[in-house]
Amino acid sequence: MSASSHGDDRNPRYTEAEAAELLRATFPDAGRPALRFCGQGSDFCSYAVDESRILRIGVDDESALRLNWERQLLPILAQELDIASPAFQHVGKTPDGAPFVVYPMIQGEPFDDDIYDGLASESRDLIADQFAAYLRVLHEFPVVKAYEYGIRERRADDVCREFRGKAKGMIYPDLSASELATCEGMFDRYFEEGYDAYEPALIHGDLQPRHVLFDRDRSRIEGIIDYSDIWVGDPDYDLHYLHRQYGDDLLDRLLPRYGHSAPDACRWKSGIFRLCRCIDEIVFGTEDERPDHVAEGWRDLRELLAEAS
Fold it and tell me: Please, are residues 79 and 64 in contact by the beta-carbon 8 Å criterion?
């Protein structure tokens, strides 16, 4: 539900040659590092440097603001977490004024659902313990302090209204009558039955598998990266990401460890947040001429509506 989770890996804003030149200018004694393009979101273009460091370069007007959030927040979180987060070693600007950072690479591979599915029950319990501890630290961070850092609030009810409005113009005309009724029914229930009420918390906002780094040898999460989407909002949104990716098994283990006061409501809200993400994928893909996003969004939307009907 955040534009910064989108990007264009086809056309990196900074080429490998430009990234190499930036590194040579910043670290004259570093020689000729080997670079590997890691990807580009709406805010940053990233390269692995000798498979030991990460170079992140801002690509839009908000990049500097988001880096400032991370610079202030991550050192505080690091003191309380057993999961690593980026530890910035160098902060600078490119010749054209874009912000960039360099930090040690957190070793691990994206925690895809097939990895979780292959874990023994004891290892799944460990993962649930790690996620619960991580989310408690993040969600209990003082919201007032987050505001002082410039981190903004994005209300979940406003997000749902926004995507409901977009769906009416771009998606509803292509739904069947039953699909439309199911979709509208989910939005109506969210607003009419109090699911839009929550205690605002600091959230990661983009806990997709590529941002959760897993160590197969130790069967544990080594790090969580990319905090450029952090905002103050509904903490259940972070839980939705994990539920969508790893299913009921992880959520059932996670919620009691996390100490959730309304687990049934959390499970239901996962569906409405998933609905908004489907709409987001379709709208973004249409506006940015990305048919892969459009197709993925429609597949997930029809699957969700079939499950919810």
Answer: no
The letter for the amino acid at 169 is G
Structural domains counted in the chain? 2
User: Distance between CA 33 and CA 50 in Å, rounded?
Assistant: 6
Q: Which of 69, 104, 139 is the last residue of a domain?
A: 104
Could you tell me where the beta strands, DSSP code E, fall in 59-98? 90-93
The tokens of 29 are what? Answer: 């004694």
Pair (211, 296) in one structural domain? yes
Q: Is the pTM of this model over 0.70?
A: yes
- SS3 of 15-41: the string is CHHHHHHHHHHHCHHHCCCCEEEEEEC
Listed residues 104, 134, 151: the one ending a domain: 104
Across the range 159-166, mean pLDDT stands at 96
Q: CATH code at 43?
A: 3.30.200.20
Amino acid identity, residue 222?
E
Domain match, 225 and 273 both: yes
Residue 205, sorted as left (phi over 0), alpha (psi -120 to 50) or beta, turns out to be: left
* pLDDT digit string, tens, across residues 235-262: 999 999 999 999 999 999 999 999 999 9
Same structural domain for residues 99 and 172?
no
Distance CA 175, CA 185 (A): 14
Query: Got the DSSP string for 272-307?
Result: HHHHHHHHHHHHHHHHTT-HHHHHHHHHHHHHHHHH
- Residues 194 and 251 occupy one common structural domain: yes
**Tokens describing residue 256:** 């009691």
Instruction: Compute the half-sphere exposure of residue 140: CA atoms within 13 Å on the CB side of its CA.
Output: 12
8 A C-beta contact, residue 202 and residue 77:
no
Q: Tell me which residue range forms the domain holding 137.
A: 109-308
